[in-house]
């Protein structure tokens, strides 16, 4: 009897408290997993927001450049005699009531990347219209760069109040040419003075492309000349391009872009034009990074473009709970095994560290990438400033690298990048930093080195690369180097890198395989 009593007392003292710990441990792990999941969601959605913000900022700048270039050309050539070659290149299609300007440049026999078409027969066009068409054609280089380098850009174009449009990439003019209905398209209406008296750049709601490329949005820049609205320069971004960004990273829920008026711009799932999936007023309702539950849905909102576009992430409550439970089931099955919980923690920490390492290292060469470089140099900058030591930076570009890829293949190009990175790392001190800045560009931070010493190091690096790195046929690889010394008032390394980049441009313009220094003024 005494033994039974002792056994019962043992159960009360050990087993029952242990069993009582199970729901506490389950609740604790559930709370922890909820917090962890929200952090993961924040990280992925923040990353998407940063990518989208950078992307829209770049496209916005490109659209502004098109608009400003048009205005500048019109202002600078207002009193010039129009080019008679424009009139000579006009082809009329009376049966279709439009004309086009032939896409072949009479001087260089070069095909343009776009198509210029206008309303009417093209006969007896006024001087102002000819000058505006000349201005549009003068942007050929910008249009070509946009449509060649930006795979996400469906169309880049300029349309005039004088009823013509220059659009890139080049199209079959019988399928896509100027039509009066273009004046009713969102890219035009949203940027016209009636809807946009502030003359600001606008981003349209999602709409169906009149040229048949599916759903898209337009970044429209109104163009004014002598305080008069003359046209719109616009860049069209396809829905698929925005979806690719919205699907970046593994994240529970659905991301979408919402316009200021609440209309949807893009989302990962099926899109219905005019859909308003976000039932709340964005302004003042959410703080960036907060995950808020309203009714049976979790929401988080990040600003992508001020007062115009927001990234909204949506998670259904049931989906959220189910996801957490599914993640916890393996651990609840081993709830008494504390080691499993510890292993999970270690694994998560290791994953976070791995993500950190990947985000700071170039995957091809294994050296620091731009982000890691900027972070690594901060300590040296602080130390140098405290002790009054000089420092310098080098911007390095592999000469004719595109030709290497084109002629020898990308495998050879990757090998050259690795060998150049290795040679740079071997040729600098342990206190210096080398990174792959992007593409075929590298950056080097030289601690405790003035401009004269940096020039000597740059020359040494140039000769080392030329001597050590060779193509399969034995040809030497050369580099161009820009040198800049950090200024005493520099708050960060970016300004010095900008000066070094200017010096690099001089080296490349001067024939490459050179070292050029940025001349310090008032240093």
TrEMBL record:
Protein name per its UniProtKB record: diguanylate cyclase
Native organism taxonomy: Bacteria, Pseudomonadati, Spirochaetota, Spirochaetia, Leptospirales
Residue ranges of every copy of the GGDEF domain listed in the record: 389-520
SMART domains: GGDEF
Residues in the signal sequence: none
Single GO cellular component term: plasma membrane
GO molecular function: diguanylate cyclase activity
EC annotation from Swiss-Prot or TrEMBL: 2.7.7.65
InterPro entries given in the database record: Diguanylate_Cyclase, GGDEF_dom, Nucleotide_cyclase, Rev_trsase/Diguanyl_cyclase
Catalytic activity: 2 GTP = 3',3'-c-di-GMP + 2 diphosphate
Main EC class the enzyme belongs to: transferase
Species, as recorded: Leptospira ellisii
Keyword annotations of the record: Membrane, Nucleotidyltransferase, Transferase, Transmembrane, Transmembrane helix
Transmembrane segments: 14-32, 328-346
Pfam families, sorted: GGDEF
GO process terms (BP): cell adhesion involved in single-species biofilm formation; negative regulation of bacterial-type flagellum-dependent cell motility
